[in-house]
User: Which sequence fits this backbone?
């Protein structure tokens, strides 16, 4: 683990691993980043296990979701397994043009982000999930501070999402309150759900919340890029954002060093795909049933042998 | 300073109280009625600084950091090489201690590494800490230590605790030695002091979130950056205490040293440092406590350990998991705090040279024996290596049920309570601050600066406030001041009476200090999420969290102030026939007032530092600006907003300290 030990052991290393049958480009560890939500831990651990099977040396490192780009750029870090189109687009656009950070392609998962309400609210507001029912039910979703307007708990301002603009464009009698973090967001949901109290909030998937709590996404007019860019498009001719939120892939991003130094690993990363449903189940197994990430990943590895073997062939 | 200001401040000096009240009412009137007037007369810029005039400091800062990393060079090596070599120096001892405490020693790198020596057994660790506790104090501290570490094992916090402990063991020595170095330097040369002092003030008041990203970029990813951020945060009190300790030495001692023929080096290490030792040790204690405060934030940039456990538990809404990991931090902090205090109180005994080898090194021998035995047994019996998971305890279910019970049964009452506080207390304060035109606000603060610290303080206030204005952060700064102000008012209404109670009653004092210790070391994240569940996101929740965190100094300083009064004065009061009430209001409180003011000052400092964290529950102030910059890795934006927070802290610190000093002079303490 510590460096001078590593220096001494450069010689012994080659002896130690000469028996390793699979020849890979370099025995230096590939550094994968870990963030603080279970889905990402699972994706990263699966990739790590697969690369280990191929004979690569892996190191898992804690890093911040956006700040990690600086590390990917310098080659301190090599691979980030989940970069959501919905929250990471700006960073991808900022760091990929000079070629030091590469977008390796989709993980196969699609991020969904939208207004969401628990099923018991349907009794109060039978018109849902159609967004046009939102105004009729605004009062049912109001609190002391927002009455008579409905209260919508949006994501942290850092997530963007244009909810203030959406409320304006669709002329909704709702007030947007921003949560500071997603922990606060789900704390409010848990609290309201326990009391069967009204709540409308920003939920994203894949996540454990949609499997733990019964509810639905509101159906807004479907997103198109014209909707966000062209005011004349859509229901409100004078305003953009008169539609739902975009849905988009969850990308894998890597340092260019990954491609140069471990081309075989790069190909395996490129081949990696997994579906929303699979991920939703695994996240629930960890966050709701209390299984460890390692156990859930080991399970997946056992059940999907042929799939991951094709990634590293 | 223009002449009309001078006359106004002269008036201030003569009819002080009246003028203060008068100014407050003028400000109130300005706040209530100026906005319509300003808007209709095209003077809206006085309320909201025009965007077109904002000076792009943040861009310049981002550019210069980028330049530092990518192109700055010292000829032989680049700036980047320089910072990376600092990381390397810190990383080496850290890796060794981490391996020894938590991870074990490996040969090779990454997942292919092979374990050659497992980490220290939990049995050995508990044994060592207990023996050290006996050695430096007594059996009761040993028992406390023993049960504290047993808690870590039984509640399944062992591995994370050891990771955290390893980082503390590195951060503290680095913080202490760097701090002492600058403390001595400031003592030796007045010029260094003049440069170091303002930098320290900035370091202490700058929100940590503001420099996390620059530290990451400069020092690389991983635990080392977290360590460096911790050292930056924990360093300032060490410099201060070293400097003050050395300054406070009786000059005759130094003279005596010189007369004995000490050279400079001897004078420093043999005479001055030993004389200043008690305040240096106090500094060490502060460094330890502040390092523990950083555990959560450090885990956001890769420190792992208990902080990471708290964060991940709360993301899963596992409140119990968060509480257990949080309490583990509290327990470690309290044990190390008591140990370091015992160490401070311990006087060096003269060694009895006649003791034989075994008696002399008795404790050390037991420790070595313990380590060896547990290693040997560890090869055969798993229990010695790691505590069996199936007999660990968890209180998760209990916490979840309690919160659910309160939530389901008392939510409506809490909601009404919150509504009234918001409507009749918080919102009036908010609209008061938000509708004061900035030129008027600056004018008032410059005036106050002039009153307390003449042209120097007035000029400083002017420059610092203008910085906030030209960066376009005025309105956010006002929200910060409102939230901080509202929390501090409530914290004082709760804290000062508690402090008076603790000052008059010994048993209350004991109970209060242990509660305050816990509140100060318990990571705020632990209670932030339950508070959100009961009160939803928003300013009220933020205010509650800030009050909980910043209550301690208001209580502690009041206790200290009341207890510190010369008993003769109280006796004199009694002899003159004061009843209890008169004693309290006419003697004790006025005499304790300077100390209470310092406590309020600390409360304000803590409240400001906590505001950055309440951005996580959706407040919209400078803290949020810092937090947004953090999540977008925007170095300049974060530093500028951080500087604004620091400036507000510096302004209020200067004013309150001067006020306290004026009072002390008035009552004859100085």
Assistant:
């Amino acid at each position: 683990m510590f460096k001078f030990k590593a220096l001494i052991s450069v010689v012994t290393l080659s002896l130690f691993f000469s028996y390793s049958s699979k020849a890979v480009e370099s025995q230096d560890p590939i550094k994968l980043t870990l963030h603080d939500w279970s889905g990402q831990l699972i994706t990263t651990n699966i990739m790590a296990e697969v690369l280990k099977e191929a004979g690569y040396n892996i190191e898992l490192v804690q890093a911040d979701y956006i700040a990690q780009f600086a590390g990917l750029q310098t080659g301190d870090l090599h691979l980030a397994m989940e970069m959501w189109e919905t929250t990471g687009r700006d960073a991808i656009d900022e760091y990929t043009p000079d070629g030091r950070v590469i977008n390796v392609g989709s993980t196969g998962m699609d991020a969904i982000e939208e207004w969401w309400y628990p099923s018991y609210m349907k009794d109060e507001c039978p018109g849902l999930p159609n967004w046009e029912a939102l105004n009729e039910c605004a009062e049912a979703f109001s609190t002391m501070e927002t009455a008579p307007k409905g209260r919508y708990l949006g994501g942290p301002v850092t997530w963007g999402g244009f909810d203030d603009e959406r409320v304006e464009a669709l002329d909704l009698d709702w007030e947007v309150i921003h949560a500071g973090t997603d922990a606060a967001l789900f704390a409010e949901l848990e609290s309201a759900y326990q009391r069967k109290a009204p709540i409308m909030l920003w939920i994203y998937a894949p996540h454990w919340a949609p499997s733990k709590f019964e509810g639905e996404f509101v159906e807004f007019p479907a997103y198109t890029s014209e909707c966000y860019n062209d005011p004349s498009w859509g229901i409100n001719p004078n305003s953009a954002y008169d539609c739902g939120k975009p849905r988009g892939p969850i990308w894998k991003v890597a340092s260019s060093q990954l491609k140069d130094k471990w081309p075989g690993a790069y190909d395996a990363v490129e081949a990696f795909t997994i579906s929303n449903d699979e991920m939703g189940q695994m996240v629930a197994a960890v966050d709701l049933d209390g299984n460890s990430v390692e156990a859930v990943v080991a399970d997946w590895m056992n059940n999907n042998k042929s799939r991951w073997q094709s990634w590293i062939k | 300073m223009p002449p009309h200001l001078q006359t106004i401040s002269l008036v201030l000096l003569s009819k002080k109280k009246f003028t203060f009240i008068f100014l407050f009412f003028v400000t109130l009137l300005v706040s209530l009625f100026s906005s319509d007037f300003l808007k209709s007369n095209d003077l809206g810029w006085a309320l909201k600084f025009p965007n077109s005039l904002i000076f792009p400091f943040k861009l310049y800062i981002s550019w210069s950091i980028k330049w530092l990393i990518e192109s700055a060079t010292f000829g032989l090596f680049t700036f980047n090489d320089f910072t990376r070599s600092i990381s390397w120096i810190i990383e080496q001892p850290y890796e060794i201690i981490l391996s020894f405490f938590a991870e074990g020693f490996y040969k090779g790198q990454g997942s292919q590494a092979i374990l050659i020596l497992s980490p220290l057994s939990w049995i050995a660790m508990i044994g060592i800490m207990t023996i050290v506790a006996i050695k430096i104090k007594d059996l009761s501290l040993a028992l406390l230590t023993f049960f504290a570490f047993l808690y870590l094992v039984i509640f399944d916090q062992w591995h994370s605790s050891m990771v955290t402990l390893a980082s503390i063991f590195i951060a503290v020595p680095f913080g202490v030695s760097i701090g002492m170095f600058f403390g001595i330097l400031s003592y030796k040369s007045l010029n260094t002091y003049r440069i170091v002092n303002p930098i320290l003030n900035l370091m202490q008041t700058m929100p940590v979130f503001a420099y996390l990203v620059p530290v990451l970029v400069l020092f690389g990813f991983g635990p080392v950056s977290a360590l460096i951020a911790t050292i930056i945060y924990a360093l300032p009190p060490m410099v201060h205490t070293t400097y003050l300790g050395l300054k406070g030495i009786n000059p005759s001692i130094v003279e005596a040293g010189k007369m004995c023929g000490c050279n400079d080096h001897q004078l420093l290490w043999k005479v001055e440092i030993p004389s200043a030792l008690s305040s240096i040790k106090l500094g060490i204690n502060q460094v330890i406590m502040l390092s523990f405060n950083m555990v959560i934030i450090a885990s956001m940039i890769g420190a792992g350990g208990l902080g990471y456990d708290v964060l991940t538990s709360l993301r899963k809404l596992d409140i119990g998991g968060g509480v257990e990991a949080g309490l583990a931090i509290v327990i470690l902090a309290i044990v190390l705090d008591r140990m370091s205090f015992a160490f401070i109180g311990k006087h060096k005994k003269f060694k009895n040279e006649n003791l034989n080898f075994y008696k002399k090194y008795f404790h050390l021998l037991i420790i070595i024996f313990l380590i060896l035995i547990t290693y040997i047994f560890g090869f055969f019996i798993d229990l010695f290596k790691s505590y069996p998971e199936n007999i660990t305890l968890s209180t998760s279910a209990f916490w979840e049920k309690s919160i659910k019970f309160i939530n389901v049964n008392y939510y409506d009452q809490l909601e009404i309570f919150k509504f009234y506080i918001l409507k009749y207390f918080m919102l009036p304060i908010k609209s008061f601050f938000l509708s004061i035109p900035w030129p008027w606000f600056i004018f008032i603060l410059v005036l106050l600066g002039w009153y307390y610290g003449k042209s120097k303080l007035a000029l400083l206030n002017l420059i610092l406030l203008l910085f906030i204005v030209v960066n376009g952060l005025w309105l956010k700064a006002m929200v910060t001041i409102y939230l901080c102000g509202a929390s501090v008012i409530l914290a004082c209404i709760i804290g000062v009476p508690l402090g008076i109670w603790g000052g008059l009653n010994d048993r209350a004092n004991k109970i209060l200090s242990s509660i305050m210790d816990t509140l100060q070391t318990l990571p705020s994240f632990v209670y932030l999420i339950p508070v959100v569940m009961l009160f939803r996101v928003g300013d009220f929740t933020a205010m509650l969290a800030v009050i909980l965190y910043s209550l301690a100094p208001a209580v502690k300083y009041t206790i200290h102030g009341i207890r510190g009064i010369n008993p003769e004065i109280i006796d004199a009061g009694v002899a003159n026939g004061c009843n209890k009430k008169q004693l309290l209001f006419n003697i004790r409180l006025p005499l304790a007032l300077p100390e209470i003011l310092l406590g309020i000052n600390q409360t304000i400092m803590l409240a400001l530092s906590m505001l950055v964290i309440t951005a996580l529950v959706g407040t919209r102030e400078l803290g949020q600006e810092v937090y947004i910059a953090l999540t977008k890795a925007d170095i300049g934006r974060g530093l500028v907003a951080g500087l604004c927070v620091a400036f507000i802290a510096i302004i209020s610190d200067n004013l309150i300290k001067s006020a306290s000093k004026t009072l002390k002079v008035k009552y004859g303490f100085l």
In short: The first strand of chain B starts at residue 105 and ends at 107. Chain B is about 80% helix and 0% strand.
